[in-house]
Amino acid sequence: MRDYERETENRVKFIQELRRSSGAKGIVYGNSGGKDSALVGILCKMACVDTVGLIMPCGSRRNYEADRRDAELVAQQYDIATRLVDLSNVRDALIASLEATTGLTDSAMANIAPRLRMTTLYAVAASENRLVAGTGNRSESYLGYFTKWGDGASDFNVIHDLTVVEVLDFLRYLQAPPSIIIKAPSAGLFDGQTDEAELGLKYSSVDSFLLTGKTDEMDQHLMEKLHRSTMHKRRMPLTFQESDHEVS
């Protein structure tokens, strides 16, 4: 069991030192109403009074209903400033423009919302001298279950080393709202979407593998396959080095 009292102190200190060294005035993050964003928001507010969470509905009904209610509940309990930026019309306009140019796949459509949200976060950050806090956890990172240049982008990430179960334990320690604790993990990309259904894996199995090296053999095979195929998401773009391609 992790020492969450000590971890809270260390993570808050990390954020405070980063903000001071960067000269940033405050922090901004996406307040999605999920577990990861809740933990990030709480820790950032502990470290920086000027923390703002953006609620960014973008196309799905749950963004406007359950997700928004949970996001507002966390913000109210921990006194986190909140702003609403509705991106649904922007998404629709972009899709209409793209459809005149290419045939959009389901994957391409699903990734539009996370990238629009990150564009929004960085626009606010650049306008108000803020750092963008990432909200991805260790389990998602290992599987590559995030959008490249979308929710995978940030200036810093204070929960990147935590698995899904550890995020949940951390939230219990911080006494987060019950609706957040029991909520099924979901990127909220479309109505009815859940992470585990889309991945074909239970996070309990993923976390067991990451924390102990033991899990169901077929699950492990799928995890390792996903990890290999998404390696490009976890590294900077490849660049040409002339010295590596000199003609002899």
Molecular structure report:
This protein has 248 residues and is α/β, with parallel strands linked by helices. It has a single domain, classed as Rossmann fold (3-Layer(aba) Sandwich). The protein has helices at 4-22, 35-47, 61-64, 66-77, 88-99, 106-128, 138-143, 164-173, 178-181, 195-199, 203-212, 217-229, and strands at 26-30, 51-55, 81-84, 130-132. Strands 3-2-1-4 form a four-stranded parallel beta sheet, with helices on both faces. Strand 1, helix 2 (35-47) and strand 2 (51-55) form a beta-alpha-beta unit. The longest helix has 23 residues, at 106-128. The protein starts with a helix and ends in a 19-residue tail after the last helix. The relative contact order is 0.14.
Map the helices and strands:
Blueprint (H helix, E strand, L loop, with lengths): L3 H19 L3 E5 L4 H13 L3 E5 L5 H4 L1 H12 L3 E4 L3 H12 L6 H23 L1 E3 L5 H6 L20 H10 L4 H4 L13 H5 L3 H10 L4 H13 L19
Helix pairs in contact: 1-2, 2-8
Instruction: State the end-to-end CA separation.
Output: 57 Å
Q: What is the helix tally?
A: 12
Regarding quaternary structure, how should these chains be classified? single chain
Determine and state the CATH class. Alpha Beta
List the secondary-structure elements in sequence, H or E. Answer: HEHEHHEHHEHHHHHH
List the domain count as a whole number: 1
Strand content: 5-15%
Share in helix = 40-55%
* Overall average pLDDT: 93
Biggest β-sheet, characterized? 4 strands, parallel
Query: How would the global form be characterised?
Result: globular
Count of strand segments:
4
Q: pLDDT below 50 for ≥5 consecutive residues: which ranges?
A: none
Q: Which structural class best describes the helix and strand composition?
A: alpha/beta
Strand order of the largest sheet: 3-2-1-4
State Rg: 19 Å
The H-level CATH homologous superfamily, spelled out, is: HUPs
What is the CATH topology?
Answer: Rossmann fold
| CATH architecture assignment | 3-Layer(aba) Sandwich
